[in-house]
From TrEMBL, chain A:
Keywords: mRNA processing, mRNA splicing, Nucleus, Spliceosome
Entry function: Required for pre-mRNA splicing.
Coiled-coil segments: none
Lineage of the organism: Eukaryota, Viridiplantae, Streptophyta, Embryophyta, Tracheophyta
Origin species: Ilex paraguariensis (yerba mate)
Gene Ontology biological process terms from the UniProt entry: mRNA splicing, via spliceosome
Alphabetized Pfam families for the sequence: PRP38
PANTHER family assigned to the protein according to its UniProt record, in alphabetical order: PRE-MRNA-SPLICING FACTOR 38A-RELATED
Localisation per UniProt entry: Nucleus
Descriptive protein name: Pre-mRNA-splicing factor 38
Entry's Gene Ontology cellular component terms: spliceosomal complex
InterPro entries: PRP38
Automatic annotation (TrEMBL), chain B:
InterPro entries attached to this UniProt entry: MFAP1, MFAP1_C
Start and end residues of each Micro-fibrillar-associated protein 1 C-terminal domain: 169-390
Protein name: Micro-fibrillar-associated protein 1 C-terminal domain-containing protein
Composition-biased stretches (Basic and acidic residues): 187-196, 289-306
Lineage of the organism: Eukaryota, Viridiplantae, Streptophyta, Embryophyta, Tracheophyta
């Protein structure tokens, strides 16, 4: 039960939305304690609370490829598929930068090209600092606009292959 | 048998005899629980041996050992009778012999106590044993005391009878059963002593084993504890390695101006990059258009001026070198912005270089061996078209001569040299649309 997508959710890019994340990473997330404890029965509202508690972003780290809570929350969003309005709200909010980045990430994965560009480009102006966890477990400094840039130009970010969009 | 179910067997036997079936063995049916026929005749007193002897006599009447039989008969009879009568006494005899053994151990203990072969190091065990022996002695003395008055009474009455019986019994025993003659065994050779010593040695060994096991277990537990501690330490270390969150400062309030500057630099870099990418695309498109609309001669000039990226000097392949395709994937340029992994150096290798088999010069081989996959079951016998051409060039309509050339020129399709395809107008318009 816990790992199945909402049956009412629509498929993204022709596939189960959870399949956007690769199988290996997906299994790693399912087995992670953060997922098992916190992400059980999350709804859109409670998700916001969890997102506000985030304090770093990143993909997997360590020899074990442990996923970060950021990853788990992305997965959860894919699973419950919040409305576009909610996601836009995430992006528009100014107070919590990690919530913003979370929303941006989700939109990049699931939105159509025009939406992606429309909502993500304004984020270029946000130059706040972010904490980023690299693959060896160390934290590095990053900025919001750098992250957005990565999302828009690169194929691959935070250990998830991003879907192709036009330049 | 079904036919003769109601008829007795005697009648059947008589009938068979009359018919001439003497000597034939008849197989009787077996019922579980019912005694077979030959068993019915034997008497059931309980003397199985007697009965068996009787049956044997019946079956095989022996005329030879009658004399011997007479002599053994009383013995057999006595044996059979003695069996019934003397069972309990024989059992008592057995018991008596065993008790005699224990008595000897007590003597041994006494001897030891005197200190002849004193090898014991454990004084406590020794005292224990002494105590036990004393108790036993006391018990026996008491028993004897109790028995003595009884025995005295009985003895007086039945002394004679007992003695006589005893004597007769012993006589009978001697003649009836085969008994071992009691031989005196010196102390050093007595089995009982050795057995006892062995038992004691075993006990000691057991105790030592238990002690050793305890010690081993102690050592093991210590090791386990050490390992556990080490594991805990490692876990701690790893946790710390994960990196302090406080290492990276994400406080945004600090130095707004600096932040802004940094951001501006980044934005400018990004904008520049975008612009350049766009310009490059435009330029390419223009060039393509221009080249497409040129005529042949201008094109040739153009190409001479802007040669295509110098083709890596093509190596000449050896005779019958195998073709190797380097693969269609993972070919992205190192400069590609979208790609996460640049191409590996291996993709820049020269894939037309000879390897392995190709290094050998195949021209020196005999013609038969100059084929692909020589020796393998999938080898091909045919080489190439020109080689396998079987046209007979002697025919007037195949060999090249001026007549043929004139005819070819007249044939359709052989006139003009093949021109470069111009491309369809529709496709060109599609791009601009």
């Amino acid at each position: 039960m816990a790992n199945r997508t909402d049956p009412a959710a629509k498929s993204i890019r022709g596939t189960n939305p959870q399949n956007l994340v690769e199988k290996i990473l997906r299994s790693k997330i399912y087995q992670h304690t953060y997922w098992k404890e916190q992400c059980f029965g999350l709804t859109a509202e409670t998700l916001v609370d969890k997102a506000m508690e985030l304090d770093h972003l990143g993909g997997t780290f360590g020899g074990n490829r442990k996923p970060t809570p950021f990853m788990c929350l992305v997965m959860k969003m894919l699973q419950i598929q919040p409305e576009k309005d909610i996601v836009v709200e995430f992006i528009k909010n100014e107070d919590y930068k990690y919530v913003r980045v979370l929303g941006a990430f989700y939109l990049r994965l699931t939105g159509i090209d025009s939406d992606v560009y429309r909502y993500l480009e304004p984020l270029y102006n946000d130059y706040r600092k972010l904490r980023r966890k690299s693959t060896d477990g160390q934290f590095t400094l990053a900025h919001v606009d750098e992250v957005i840039d990565e999302l828009l130009t690169k194929d691959y970010s935070c250990d998830i292959a991003l879907p192709r969009i036009k330049k | 048998m079904s036919v003769t179910a109601g008829v007795s067997d005697a009648i059947i036997a008589i009938r068979d005899k009359l018919r001439g079936k003497i000597g034939q063995t008849k197989v009787k049916r077996y019922w579980p629980g019912k005694a077979p026929e030959w068993a019915d005749d034997a008497d059931e007193d309980g003397d199985i041996q007697m009965a068996r002897a009787v049956a044997l006599d019946k079956a095989f009447p022996s005329h030879e050992d009658l004399d011997i039989g007479k002599r053994d008969d009383p013995r057999l009879r006595r044996l059979a009778e003695s069996r019934i009568d003397n069972r309990e006494e024989i059992r008592a005899d057995h018991r008596r012999i065993r008790q005699a053994e224990i008595v000897s151990t007590i003597e041994e203990e006494n001897r030891r106590q005197e200190g002849l072969d004193f090898e014991e190091e454990d004084e406590d065990a020794l005292e224990e044993r002494r105590r036990r022996i004393r108790e036993k002695l006391l018990q026996r003395q008491q028993e004897e005391a109790v028995l003595l008055p009884e025995e005295e009474e009985e003895e007086v009455e039945e002394e004679e009878e007992e003695e006589s019986e005893y004597e007769t019994d012993s006589e009978e025993e001697q003649t009836g059963m085969a008994m071992v003659k009691p031989v005196f065994v010196p102390k050093s050779e007595r089995d009982t002593v050795a057995e006892r010593e062995r038992l004691e040695a075993e006990e000691r060994a057991l105790k030592e084993k238990v002690k050793r096991r305890l010690e081993e277990r102690k050592v093991e537990t210590k090791q386990i504890v050490i390992e556990k501690i080490r594991e805990d330490e490692e876990i701690q270390k790893n946790l710390e390695l994960e990196g302090n969150i406080a290492d990276v400062d994400t406080d945004d309030e600090l130095n707004e101006a600096e932040e802004y500057e940094a951001w501006k630099a980044r934005e400018i870099a990004r904008i520049k990059r975008d612009r350049e990418a766009r310009e490059a695309m435009l330029k390419e498109k223009e060039e393509v258009e221009k080249v497409r609309n040129m005529t042949e001669e201008e094109r040739r000039e153009w190409e001479r001026k802007n040669p295509k990226p110098a083709q890596s000097s093509k190596q000449k392949w050896r005779f019958m070198q195998k073709y190797y395709h380097k693969g269609a994937f993972f070919q992205s340029d190192a400069d590609d912005l979208a790609a996460t992994v640049g191409s590996d150096n291996i993709f820049h290798r020269d894939f037309s270089a000879p390897t392995g088999e190709d290094k050998m010069d195949k021209t020196i081989l005999p013609k038969v061996m100059q084929v692909k996959h020589f020796g393998r079951s999938g080898r091909t016998k045919w080489t190439h078209l020109v080689n396998e051409d079987t046209t007979d060039w002697n025919n007037p309509w195949t060999y090249n001569d001026p007549l043929r050339a004139k005819y070819n020129a007249k044939m359709a399709g052989m006139n003009a040299p093949i021109a470069k395809p111009k491309g369809s107008k529709k496709l060109k318009d599609w791009e601009s649309r």
